[in-house]
């Protein structure tokens, strides 16, 4: 039936809706089924007298059609790269968010086209900013996940432009609207997995850990390979930061925990060796696992965590000693070799630089003496106030979202019907229990039931 | 930290080793007076234990044990085993062998067998008559006999069977005490626990029995390394115990076990209120004056004296049936306690002086202190260069700032994660096979 309405040429198509308001819902609903049925060759046609159909379209008002034409053109054998690029940039800049929400997959397709073309053009740096902006524009809020997120991060990872991903990554994802954004669980897993990897690249291990944890603790009835890979990295990052595996959240799915036990044994063995803080044992274990780590492409990370063991031990020494000679430190930490104290000095210097410890090294003595100090930050400067205010603001914004969610839950059909069930289940005769009568307010029972039916 | 770990392993290994270790001749132990405090099975067990571990006292101990077995039990198996061991020891020293009294062995063997038959027949008879009290008595007698012959599991069975025929509180207590006695000998301390509780729940317990129960519970706790509970129970033991429980423990033991456990687990205030001011326990301490001295020395911070006494008596305690494998841990804990207490009033302490009063060297002391600091038992830091121990000045304000900032971050992260999870569930984005 709709096939009869299919336009024959692109001109027909343009004419068929040009007289209505293209942004209205109605049109999108009629238009989209038509667009979806047309073959891609249809969109590569030109209008009669060799005019470009795109010229006659308004990017914002006719975003959907524009997107279909663009995508089809990018997929021909030899696209005109420079012109198409500028078209795409224009499109990404001006497209109508609401229209594209009806066809999120097209937006993703265009983003993919863009990367492909830019690579052919030999310069994919130009794509990052527009893509980031597109994500921000497309998502209903900064906390929404879109289908573009994981693709964008993958691009950043592949071309090692980690910082480009930051504006997107810094916003925690809390909102999911899978119908609008055309996403499935893989989008969520991959986004956070890639995000964790980007943060590792940026040496922001804390945040990387958080991202991996989100992946592992995602609701699951079977285990995804992404989750296993995330767990492997989670273990290593966790060791790097804290010297032990930080326990996973309680709500982590049991299937995942079991799968992790079965498939990530070498990592858990490595962690066990690490927790003993016995340098020799860790080295042995690393030797044993080298092949596996290499295969998983985690060897570099594992090596870094081995270094972390020394830093952690030095950190511990600061709690125990006020002054200690470099030789003693090297001994206590487990460094070996003829120049152990100079390696120890190296570590300490780096740790002082990163403000992990506060210490001074004096070489007026024979071996070099290190005096450890407390954190000189007394928290009595305006800097502290700014920092705290910042945190409070962040916490407040999170709180806002919680309140909003709470509200939504309270209004939701499921919640209300459950409430209704609980009430009527407890009293088949229609008589309220004492405490529930309190909750309803005395005598207000009838209207509440009506409300329940209304929603149910 | 590797130091800690190795120490821990060493301590464990040591504990295992003490089972077979040979102890040098003890400094203070007089075997005759020591063993005179006991009777029955524990006397034999203790003698055999000493004989096994202390070559110097071996022969004497075996002889005493054989004598005791012959006079007070019917345990011919143990007799033969001990005699063979004695002969091994004698022959290795080139001394004339001990003559096994085979007439006694034969006669006891026969006697034991006929007794069992007789008692079992009687019991059967009682059971046919359905007189509860007689059945209980029959089980008890059979149990006593098995106990006498050294077949402890059978004895335990008989004693526990009397349970169904107990009619008065007195019977229950009797049954419990019997089971406890056998279980202690078997080393089955979980049994001891439950039967002590059972006995204590009966009304009108005589004070002697109460003391016995306390001691039994204390031994059970000692065995499971719960030194503090054990100490408390030993300290609550009434002096009525005196020599009434010598088939298990002597009052001297109560003083020693209680004193050491208390030192290892109590803080100073508890030591004062529960040990030094404890009139009942004082009477026990009179029996072992060195323990009293030890506790007072510890309380008055005379650590050199304390360590001296501990060192002097160490070998003796290694020969104690119940104490031997806890000794290292107890000593370690006492030493730690002493170090902590020594430092508590000071801001800074010269390590040299401290090492002197603990009779040790500075590097060793430093390591000990470092361990205590990492365990967070002492709030201090070591100035390794000047060899000074300095108390840590804690800045509460900074601490609070640090803590609250961290908590805020945690809160943010966790809430975000939960929100995401909720929304994922709501959108049904669950990792699943077919939702791809």
From TrEMBL, chain A:
Does the entry feature the keyword Cytoplasm, yes or no?
Answer: yes
Q: Which PROSITE patterns match?
A: PCI (PS50250)
Domain named PCI is located at 207-375
Give the chief site where it resides.
cytoplasm
Source domain of life is: Eukaryota
InterPro entries (alphabetical): COP9_N, CSN3, PCI_dom, WH_DNA-bd_sf
What are the TM regions of this chain, as residue ranges?
Answer: none
Cellular component annotations (GO), alphabetically ordered: COP9 signalosome; cytoplasm
UniProt keywords (A-Z) are: Cytoplasm, Nucleus, Signalosome
Q: Tell me the SUPFAM superfamilies matching this sequence.
A: Winged helix' DNA-binding domain
Q: Where in the cell is it found?
A: Cytoplasm; Nucleus
Q: Name one GO biological process term.
A: ubiquitin-dependent protein catabolic process
Family to which the UniProt record says this protein belongs: Belongs to the CSN3 family.
Q: What is this protein called?
A: COP9 signalosome complex subunit 3
Automatic annotation (TrEMBL), chain B:
By its UniProt entry, which InterPro entries does this protein fall under? CSN1_C, PCI_dom, Rpn7/CSN1, Rpn7_N, WH_DNA-bd_sf
Question: Transmembrane ranges?
Answer: none
Q: PROSITE patterns given for it? A: PCI
Q: Where is the PCI domain?
A: 226-396
Q: Does the keyword Nucleus apply?
A: yes
Say yes or no: keyword DNA repair present.
Answer: no
What keywords were assigned to this record?
Coiled coil, Cytoplasm, Nucleus, Signalosome
What the entry lists under Pfam families is as follows: CSN1_C, PCI, RPN7
Coiled-coil stretches: 109-136
Major site of localization recorded for this protein: cytoplasm
For this protein, the record's SUPFAM superfamilies field holds: Winged helix' DNA-binding domain
Compartment list: Cytoplasm; Nucleus
Q: Name one GO cellular component term.
A: cytoplasm
What family is this?
Answer: Belongs to the CSN1 family.
Q: What is this protein called?
A: 8975_t:CDS:1
């Amino acid at each position: 039936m709709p096939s009869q309405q299919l336009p024959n040429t692109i001109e027909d198509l343009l004419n068929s809706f040009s007289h209505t308001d293209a942004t209205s819902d109605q049109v999108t609903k009629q238009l989209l089924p038509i667009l979806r049925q047309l073959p891609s060759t249809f969109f590569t046609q030109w209008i009669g007298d060799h005019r470009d159909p795109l010229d006659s379209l308004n990017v914002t008002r006719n975003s959907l059609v524009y997107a279909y034409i663009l995508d089809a053109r990018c997929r021909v054998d030899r696209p005109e790269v420079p012109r198409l690029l500028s078209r795409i940039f224009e499109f990404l800049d001006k497209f109508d968010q609401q229209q594209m929400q009806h066809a999120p997959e097209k937006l993703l397709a265009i983003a993919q086209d863009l990367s492909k073309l830019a690579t052919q053009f030999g310069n994919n740096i130009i794509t990052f900013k527009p893509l980031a902006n597109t994500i921000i524009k497309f998502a209903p809020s900064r906390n929404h996940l879109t289908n573009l997120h994981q693709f964008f991060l993958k691009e950043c990872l592949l071309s090692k432009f980690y910082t480009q991903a930051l504006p997107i990554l810094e916003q925690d994802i809390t909102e999911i609207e899978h119908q609008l954004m055309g996403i499935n669980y893989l989008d969520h897993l991959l986004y956070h997995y890639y995000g964790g990897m980007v943060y590792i690249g940026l040496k922001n291990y804390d945040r990387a850990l958080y991202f991996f944890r989100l992946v592992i603790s995602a609701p699951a009835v079977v285990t995804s390979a992404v989750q296993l890979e995330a767990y492997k990295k989670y273990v290593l990052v966790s060791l790097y930061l804290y010297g032990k595996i930080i326990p996973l959240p309680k709500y982590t799915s049991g299937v995942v925990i079991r799968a992790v036990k079965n498939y990530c044994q070498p990592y858990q063995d490595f962690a066990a060796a690490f927790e003993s803080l016995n340098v020799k044992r860790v080295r042995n274990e690393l030797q044993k696992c080298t092949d596996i780590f290499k295969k998983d492409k985690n060897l570099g990370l594992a090596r870094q965590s081995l270094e972390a063991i020394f830093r952690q031990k030095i950190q511990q020494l600061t709690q125990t000693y006020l002054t200690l000679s470099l030789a003693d430190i090297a001994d206590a930490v487990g460094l070996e070799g003829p120049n152990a104290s100079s390696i120890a000095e190296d570590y300490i210097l780096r740790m002082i630089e990163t403000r992990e410890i506060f210490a001074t090294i004096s070489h007026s003595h024979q071996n070099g003496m290190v005096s450890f100090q407390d954190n000189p930050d007394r928290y009595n400067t305006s800097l502290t106030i700014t920092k705290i205010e910042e945190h409070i603001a962040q916490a407040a914004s999170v709180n806002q979202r919680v309140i909003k969610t709470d509200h939504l839950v309270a209004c939701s059909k499921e919640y209300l019907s459950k409430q209704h069930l609980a009430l009527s289940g407890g009293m088949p005769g229609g008589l309220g229990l004492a405490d529930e009568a309190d909750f309803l307010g005395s005598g207000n029972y009838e209207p509440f039931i009506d409300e329940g039916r209304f929603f149910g | 930290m590797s130091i800690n770990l190795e120490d821990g392993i060493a301590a464990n290994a040591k504990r295992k080793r003490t089972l077979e270790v040979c102890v040098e001749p003890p400094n203070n132990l007089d075997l005759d007076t020591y063993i005179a405090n006991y009777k029955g099975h524990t006397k034999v067990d203790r003698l055999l234990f000493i004989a096994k571990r202390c070559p110097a006292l071996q022969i004497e101990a075996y002889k005493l044990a054989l004598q005791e077995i012959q006079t007070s039990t019917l345990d011919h198996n143990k007799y033969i085993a001990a005699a063979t061991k004695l002969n091994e020891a004698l022959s290795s020293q080139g001394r004339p062998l001990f003559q096994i009294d085979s007439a006694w062995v034969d006669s006891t063997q026969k006697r034991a067998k006929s007794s069992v038959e007789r008692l079992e027949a009687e019991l059967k008879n009682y059971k046919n008559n359905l007189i509860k009290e007689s059945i209980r008595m029959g089980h008890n007698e059979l149990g006593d006999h098995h106990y006498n012959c050294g077949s402890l599991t059978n004895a335990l069975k008989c004693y526990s069977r009397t349970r169904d025929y107990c009619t008065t509180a007195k019977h229950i207590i009797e049954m419990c005490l019997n089971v406890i006695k056998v279980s202690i000998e078997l080393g089955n301390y979980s049994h001891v626990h439950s039967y002590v509780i059972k006995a204590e729940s009966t009304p009108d317990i005589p004070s002697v029995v109460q003391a016995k129960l306390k001691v039994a519970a204390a031994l059970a706790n000692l065995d499971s390394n719960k030194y503090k509970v054990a100490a408390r129970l030993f300290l609550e033991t009434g002096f009525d115990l005196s020599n009434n429980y010598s088939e298990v423990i002597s009052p001297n033991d109560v003083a020693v076990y209680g004193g050491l456990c208390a030192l290892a687990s109590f803080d100073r205030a508890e030591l004062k209120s529960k040990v030094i001011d404890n009139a009942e326990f004082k009477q026990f301490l009179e029996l072992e004056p060195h323990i009293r001295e030890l506790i007072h020395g510890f309380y008055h911070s005379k650590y050199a004296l304390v360590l001296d006494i501990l060192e002097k008596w160490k070998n003796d305690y290694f020969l104690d049936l119940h104490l031997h494998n806890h000794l290292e841990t107890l000593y370690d804990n006492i030493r730690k306690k002493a170090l902590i207490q020594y430092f508590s009033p000071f801001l800074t302490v010269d390590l040299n002086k401290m090492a002197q009063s603990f009779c040790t060297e500075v590097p060793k002391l430093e390591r000990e202190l470092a361990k205590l600091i990492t365990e967070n038992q002492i709030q201090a830091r070591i100035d390794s260069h000047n060899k000074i121990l300095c108390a840590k000045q804690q800045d509460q304000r900074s601490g609070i700032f640090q803590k609250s900032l961290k908590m805020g971050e945690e809160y943010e992260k966790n809430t975000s994660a939960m929100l995401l999870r909720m929304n994922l569930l709501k959108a049904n984005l669950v990792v699943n096979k077919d939702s791809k």
